[in-house]
């Protein structure tokens, strides 16, 4: 096919800029060669395995109390000790990954979908649409996520669904800003002009032509937001507005036991805090690996 459609004089569409997208195989093999990505992935997959199968290899019921053995220090019987009502801390850490690895990824997915749609619209239409939506998003981003979450949860009630929606919508403007920047650059390229000359609809141009070419920054931003979402879920649970008892959720466990630190019972908090930190580190390492693979 020639560079110009002979029947209408319209530039033929580029082959969807396949070369510009970067061969997915090269990205995949780059990730496999990335020690940073593989380390992060191993950490995350460990906690995913705990979330899925933790109840099968946890030595004790994470919800069963044993007042006689309350606040027992780490030992061969209780590797991470017990909390103030005798529940095995090791079992609670293992099983406690389930809620946070359900809520945080779903909130991140919601943020990615909403943010991508907003970023495509503002970047593609520009003008008054861009100005109005961007100003609203900037005003929304000026308010700390935790404050927005607390206000929404107080108004709507505490539940996992509310936490997912609140965190997802709180992070959507940040992703929208990243997508908008990428779309503004893509909009000026020939394949977009060709789609417009073919009288493709705006939705087709945005979601079929442009979206595949802005996937790399979306993936990077999504992995970064996942780390922040984990912290946000843990923070809300710690404050009593996130995941509710009797869940062995890490943030909730820290909230229930942090008063014990002053009495020397450090194990009731330390291992849950280390679990949160390790998961966030794993996600961030994976995000760095993804970013590096797309920029090689």
TrEMBL record:
<dbReference type="GO" id="GO:0055085">
    <property type="term" value="P:transmembrane transport"/>
</dbReference>
<feature type="transmembrane region" description="Helical">
    <location>
        <begin position="264"/>
        <end position="287"/>
    </location>
</feature>
<feature type="transmembrane region" description="Helical">
    <location>
        <begin position="226"/>
        <end position="244"/>
    </location>
</feature>
<keyword id="KW-0472">Membrane</keyword>
<dbReference type="Pfam" id="PF00528">
    <property type="entry name" value="BPD_transp_1"/>
</dbReference>
<dbReference type="InterPro" id="IPR025966">
    <property type="entry name" value="OppC_N"/>
</dbReference>
<keyword id="KW-0812">Transmembrane</keyword>
<feature type="transmembrane region" description="Helical">
    <location>
        <begin position="162"/>
        <end position="179"/>
    </location>
</feature>
<keyword id="KW-0813">Transport</keyword>
<comment type="similarity">
    <text>Belongs to the binding-protein-dependent transport system permease family.</text>
</comment>
<feature type="transmembrane region" description="Helical">
    <location>
        <begin position="100"/>
        <end position="124"/>
    </location>
</feature>
<dbReference type="InterPro" id="IPR000515">
    <property type="entry name" value="MetI-like"/>
</dbReference>
<protein>
    <submittedName>
        <fullName>ABC transporter permease</fullName>
    </submittedName>
</protein>
<feature type="transmembrane region" description="Helical">
    <location>
        <begin position="30"/>
        <end position="54"/>
    </location>
</feature>
<dbReference type="Pfam" id="PF12911">
    <property type="entry name" value="OppC_N"/>
</dbReference>
<keyword id="KW-1133">Transmembrane helix</keyword>
<keyword id="KW-1003">Cell membrane</keyword>
<feature type="transmembrane region" description="Helical">
    <location>
        <begin position="136"/>
        <end position="156"/>
    </location>
</feature>
<dbReference type="GO" id="GO:0005886">
    <property type="term" value="C:plasma membrane"/>
</dbReference>
<dbReference type="InterPro" id="IPR035906">
    <property type="entry name" value="MetI-like_sf"/>
</dbReference>
<dbReference type="InterPro" id="IPR050366">
    <property type="entry name" value="BP-dependent_transpt_permease"/>
</dbReference>
<feature type="domain" description="ABC transmembrane type-1">
    <location>
        <begin position="97"/>
        <end position="287"/>
    </location>
</feature>
């Amino acid at each position: 096919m020639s560079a110009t459609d002979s029947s209408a004089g319209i530039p033929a569409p580029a082959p969807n800029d396949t070369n510009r997208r970067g061969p997915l195989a090269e990205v995949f093999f780059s990730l496999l060669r990335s020690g940073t990505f593989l380390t992060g992935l191993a950490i995350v997959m460990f906690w995913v395995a705990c979330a899925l199968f933790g109840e099968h290899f946890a030595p004790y019921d994470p919800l069963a109390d044993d007042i006689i053995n309350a606040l027992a220090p780490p030992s061969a019987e209780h590797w991470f000790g017990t909390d103030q009502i005798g529940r095995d801390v090791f079992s609670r850490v293992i099983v406690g990954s389930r809620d946070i690895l359900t809520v945080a990824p779903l909130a991140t997915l919601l943020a990615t979908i909403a943010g991508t749609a907003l970023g495509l619209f503002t970047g593609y239409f520009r003008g008054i649409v861009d100005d109005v939506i961007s100003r609203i998003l900037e005003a929304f981003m000026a308010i700390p996520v935790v404050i927005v979450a607390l206000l929404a949860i107080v108004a709507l009630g505490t539940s996992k669904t509310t936490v997912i929606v609140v965190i997802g919508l709180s992070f959507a403007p940040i992703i929208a800003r990243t997508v908008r920047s990428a779309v503004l650059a893509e909009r000026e390229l020939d394949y977009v002009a060709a789609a417009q000359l073919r009288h493709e609809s705006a939705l087709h141009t945005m979601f079929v032509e442009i979206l595949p070419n802005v996937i790399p920054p979306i993936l990077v931003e999504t992995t970064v937001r996942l780390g922040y979402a984990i912290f946000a879920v843990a923070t809300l649970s710690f404050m009593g507005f996130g995941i509710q008892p009797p869940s062995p959720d890490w943030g909730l466990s820290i909230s229930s036991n942090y008063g014990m630190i002053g009495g020397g019972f450090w194990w009731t908090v330390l291992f849950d805090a280390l679990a949160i930190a390790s998961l966030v580190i794993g996600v961030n390492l994976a995000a760095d690996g993804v970013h590096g693979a797309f920029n090689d």
